[in-house]
Amino acid sequence: MTNLAEMARKALEADSTEYISLIGKATKLLASEKEQIGNLGIEGRLVNVKASGEAIVIGDLHGDLESLVYMLKTCRFVEKATKNKEVLLVFLGDYGDRGIYSPEVYYLVLKLKQLFPQKIVLMRGNHEGPDDLLAYPHDLPENLRTRFGEEGSVVYSKIRELFPYLYNAVVVDELCVMVHAGVPSRASSLEDLKFAHLKHPKERHLEEILWSDPDETIKGNRPSARGAGRLFGEDVTRKFLSTLDVKMLIRGHEPAQNGFKISHNGKILTLFSRKGQPYFNASAAYLQLGLSLKPQNVYELVPYIHKF
User: Fold this and answer.
1) Over the Cα atoms of the chain, what is R_g?
2) Confidence check: pLDDT of 109 > 80
3) Nearest-angstrom CA–CA distance, 307 and 219
4) Is 257 in a helix, a strand, or coil?
5) Half-sphere exposure of 235 (CA within 13 A, CB side)
6) CA 84 to CA 253: how far, in whole Å?
7) Dist CA 64 CA 58 (whole Å)
8) How far apart are CA 57 and CA 54, in angstroms?
9) DSSP 3-state assignment of 152?
10) Domain at 4-307: CATH code
């Protein structure tokens, strides 16, 4: 089933048995991803990407099925992947909550992963966090009960089993690092990204990857009003990028009125890829970039950001 319209229809119609089966297959697939998967190098929960081909990067979705289908249509990912083009689709996390079509978004994203496992990277957002860092309001369980009745709780427990296998970070050689939210301010090497999930909660790398936000007014970092993660200054970003030998950070996590925003003098790009309540942003956006290009900062990425 490689027809996007058919996949979207199935997302709306699949019963609980089929849904649970898909989650199980996706969890098993993600758990098996080690070392080299196509053009992706995998160590722990870190994906290394060579700077070739095309990358499509999608930010927070929060149950917005309509925007997800629109982006997939306009970037023509399914057609390219079916023809085995060198294309990579990266989701920055936060697939559910805040939107009534959260179950359908999960279904479509996991179906794409099943069909094109070497061309899809599913990252972990704060809404897919561990039990001690669960986002609130967390309305996915209620969405699933509305959709599946009593079986909704079984579906939810299976989705929770999937979350630990989602990726912490993506590094594109000499270009960028992608995380859901922010810089792990105490990270000293790639090891801290690869194994942040195993070091949690003793070390706070995972918490900051999933929850932190850049701040233009501070140096270092300080507590966040979110109640988890940190606010971090440009000096923290600069040190982190230097440690990884990359030019910029690409993230989601934070609503953006125009679908994207640039922080820390062109070192950070925030993408927000959903519309509607409770955010009511004027536009959503995604990134479509040829990885053989050599942009030196986020400002040079702007021509490749698609707003809608």
Assistant:
1) 18
2) yes
3) 31
4) coil
5) 6
6) 31
7) 12
8) 10
9) helix
10) 3.60.21.10
| 269 Cβ contact list (under 8 Å, min separation 6) | 248, 249, 250, 251, 260, 261, 262, 287, 298, 301, 305
Average pLDDT, the chain: 97
Contact call for residues 208 and 228 (beta carbons, < 8 A)? no
**Residue 7 and residue 86: Cα distance in Å, rounded?**
22
Specify whether the CB–CB gap between 290 and 52 falls below 8 A: no
Q: Which amino acid is at 304?
A: Y
At 97 the pLDDT is 97
Q: How far is the CA of 173 from the CAs of 50, 102, 129, 255, 280, in angstroms?
A: 6, 33, 27, 27, 35
Half-sphere exposure of 127 (CA within 13 A, CB side): 24
pLDDT digits (tens, 9 = 90+) for 255-288: 999 999 999 999 999 999 999 989 999 999 999 9
What is the rounded distance in angstroms from the CA atom of residue 273 to the CA atom of residue 259? Answer: 6
Model confidence at 242: pLDDT above 90:
yes
Predicted confidence (pLDDT) per residue in 158-211, tens digit: 999 999 999 999 999 999 999 999 999 999 999 999 999 999 999 999 999 999
In the prediction, which pLDDT does 1 show?
A: 59
Please tell me the pTM assigned to this model: 0.97
Place of tokens 């929770």: 160
Using the Cα atoms of residue 292, residue 38, residue 29 and residue 17 in order, give the sign of their dihedral. Answer: positive
CA atoms within 13 A on the CB side of 56: 20
